[in-house]
Amino acid sequence: MTPAQSDSKTILIVEDHALVAKFYRMALERAGNFACVVTEDVPRILADVEAGRVHMAVLDVSLANAHWQGRLIDGVELAQLVKQAAAAAGRSLPILLSTAHAMSGDRENMLAASGADDYLEKPVFDAQLLVDKVRRLLANS
Amino acid sequence: MEALEKYLPELAERFYSQIPHHPNAFRVFSGGDAQIARLKQTLQAWAKALFCGVYDHAYAEERYQIGYRHVRVGLEQKYVISAMGIVRAFLSECLLLEFPASDVRLRYARAVSKMLDLDLNLMCESYMHASMQNLRALNEHLERANRDLAEASRSKDEFLAQVSHELRTPLNSILGFTKLILDGLTKTRDEERELLRDVFSSAQHLLGLVNDILDIGRIEAGRMAVRVEDVDPREVLDSTLPLITIPAHEKSLELCDETRNTELPLVRADEVRFRQILLNLLSNAVKFTPPAAPGEPAGRVSVRARVLPASDAPAAPDGHGFLRFEVVDTGVGIQEEKREAVFELFVQGSAGPRHGGSGLGLAISRRLVQIMGGAIGIENGDAGSGTTVWFTLPLAPNQAEQVAPFAHEKPAARVRK
């Protein structure tokens, strides 16, 4: 898969469940022709964001391996860092927050706290719906 | 007033004869002859104090306490009021008999009547105070119960949220990968097979999760059916260890049954649950022990068992000892401060890559071990690294004497029940 086919956009995927990350990646690559970066390495993520190597991010809320300044952070905090890094570099970077915490009120709270642009409720299984959502966010940014 | 004293026993009798007409009093004073005798005595002392005008401060205090006692045992205020009525009526009769001259009778009647009013006021006040105290205590009790209920409801909600979260993750893979295949987004048969394997393992994970959640539900509701009998640990070990040889070999781990040459005593346990606990600890050990880097010695998972004699285990039921099992690994270990938390629901011990599993296994194991009368805990592994998870099960009766601690030879005879 080469990123330069129809959409030459690269999507950052941060998700601690390997199989869920694999699904996001395949769905975005196959149904949307996007390129994907899958990582939980926070310094690398922020470097990619600053350098403009990624154009949009799908972040899971509960992360097991995202370390920042000596502690574990979750997707909500990571979203704030990503937004800051993008703003500092003069870019706009839409964020789609994904989580399996589907209790009422979670959605609004997490969107507000993270500064993310939209919210994805697991299970996410329709590749086309995911791609449509990502395209819409990219078009608005 | 001494003239009236001779009527006191009769007053007590008459008073007592009224008790069956008060449902509560009837229940309270049904304590047998000794209690009835005591009651009659108290009544006489009271009436005497009234008749003879020795109703002083100390006696008032005593009456006040009696009011408290009545409320405590559930006597209602109408009991004391009707008791007073009986006394008043009886007194009129006595006075008529003793003092035919109306002016003397009237003087006595007034004096005693005044005492009776005083006593009634006192008793009513005492009843009221005692009732208020009862209400306050009841109120506090209800408030506490309310707080406990709110707390329980909150932890139920949290549990539900966690369950929902845990179920959605494997569902995401199952639904996502099947939909990718159905939508024609896969490229080769091999790729489809690979995704189907992922679907299969996610579905298996989901099944394990559902079983664990059902177990937790049963345990919390007190409906976990545990059938405790004499169980041979050898059989449980021999049937459980083979279940993890494949995952252990896949990570090139050495699996070591250090009990192999030891005669193990029978324990009191539910065999199915015993196996479930052992399998849980063994799979945890395999899961959290990484394969060795090139040039390093292979990781190892060992099982040990030893007898804790009753003298070392004062909590043993019926004074028998325990058999202590240890599952020792050379894996990633678990921080001291997390060693209690891993027994809670949905808590996993190590940061780092997700290790599969529901985070319910140890919580279930702890509850099962406790139901069977044993204990479970975590210590450092050998040489300070890795983890030792131990649990105990009570020895079957007559087992403690048969096997010495750390015995490595077969005893001559073995008692089987």
Quote the average pLDDT of chain B: 82
- For the record, what is the CATH homologous superfamily label of chain A? Response regulator
CATH architecture verdict of chain A:
3-Layer(aba) Sandwich
Rg over alpha carbons of chain A: 14 Å
Helix content of chain A: 40-55%
Order of H and E elements of chain A: EHEHEEEHEHEH
Largest interface, counted by CB within 8 Å of the partner chain's CB = A-B, 26 and 24 residues
State the separation between the terminal residues of chain B, measured CA to CA.
80 Å
User: Could you name the CATH topology of the largest domain in chain B?
Assistant: Heat Shock Protein 90
Secondary structure category of chain B: alpha+beta
CATH architecture descriptor of the largest domain in chain B: 2-Layer Sandwich
SS content category of chain A: alpha/beta
> How many extended strands of chain B?
7
